[in-house]
Design a protein that fits this description.
This protein is mostly helical. It folds into 2 domains: about 50 residues, Arc Repressor Mutant, subunit A, CATH 1.10.10.60; about 130 residues, Tetracycline Repressor, domain 2 (Orthogonal Bundle), CATH 1.10.357.10. About 70% of the residues lie in helices and about 0% in strands.
Amino acid sequence: MLPTLQDEKEDPRVTRTRSLILTAFDELLPEKGFRSLTVQDITNKAEINRATFYAHFNDKYDLLDQSIRQTFRQELEKRTLNACHYTDENLRILIVTVCEFVSHAHTHCTTAQPQFEALVETQVKKQLQELLQMWLEKEETDVDTNTAATAASWAIYGLVLQWNREKGTERLSAELFADQVFPLIAANLQLAQVT
């Protein structure tokens, strides 16, 4: 299973404060946009002082990174993909999950900045790689699990990014898209029965 954000035993006050900061950030982001959002805005909303903010996060980019990581992890956990093993259906669900997350992330942050997109990409690919490697390690396979998981995670993210850029009627539903790209991803993993 993927390690959770709170694997280490944290003081409940630390957990509560981090939660207040993340909640304030999530509420202010769509309202102000990332570029205009300041640490002062976040601390005012969370009703904490700036020193407390900096005790938990380096800056607003670190906070954004943590927020993306936590949100994507919650999506994986909601679909119980972090506790599963490889099946063709789990891989399809994973592709749909990435589609929905990337689509939501790009519409949620109206100021689509390169830094924001890079943080989303880094976090999603990292967590995909960890999950796929965990699945591969449970299977009997001769492939290098790290390399196969890395290749598949980059392929999934790249294909989803291209799908997300398509507009209007040209864009397939996330489910149809997952069915379409499934053989390509499964081939990277060398596990599925691709016919």
